[in-house]
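ok so for the tutorial part 2 we go from a plain amino acid sequence to predicted structure tokens. step 1 is just haveing the sequence, like this:
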Amino acid sequence: MDPPETTRQPAWLARLRKRLRILYHSQQPGALRFQATVLIVDLAIIVFFIASPLLKDRDYFLWLDYSIAALVFLELVARALASTHVLRWLQQLPVIIDIFILVTLLAPAWLFNLGFLRILRLWTLSKSPIVWRPLNKHHLGAYRDTVQAVINLLVFIFVVTGFVYTAFVSDESGIEGYVDALYFTVTTMTTTGFGDITLPGTFGKIVSIAVMLMGISLFVRLAQLIFRPAKVHFPCPQCGLSKHEPDAVHCKACGHILNIPDEGGA
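step 2 — the prediction. this is what the tokens look like for a chain of 266 residues:
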């Protein structure tokens, strides 16, 4: 077991880290208000990322960009201090993606072509307990997989849109702006394929094929989650099976008696 990081650190730092752990992980009213504020700020940041291609030529774009960078940096530092083991926390994929996003914000002129990857912030946010606690609190945890599938689909759409806008904007392709790139992405991934906008060259055809295959897969996954009966997350004490019907009395894998809490509590 790794030694705790609370050894040999100043008292003020230990108090700060303890306070941040409470704010990020506690269910106390003050902590829940803090988590709701963080969630609202993160959603506003994601809206900025989606709108960035439309705002990049505005005079205030750099001011907004660096302001967002400051917010992302502060949140990363706070999350690092709230973690029990910072080095282990740094190795997590969502954290690595957030650090990369911060780099693109600090160097917007050099890395703007990679700016479309900033929407991955929505995916990293979906891995945070802050998003799912309100669902669980209102007994909507059974819809977690569906919400995650919607988020995955949105992230895919905007990542592909940003890539197409960055790599293929030209008169030859018919893509003259961000909306054209979004239109191409949606019509391709749904296999509607009106043909009024096409990506030129062999590489363009490969991109189109990849978008169709991955897009259809995400749509099918989302449709399965929407139309199949909802299940609750309740690990079986005996075999560990985590998904069951809401009214299940026995585990369908091992037959162990279950005690699934209803919407009124345990």
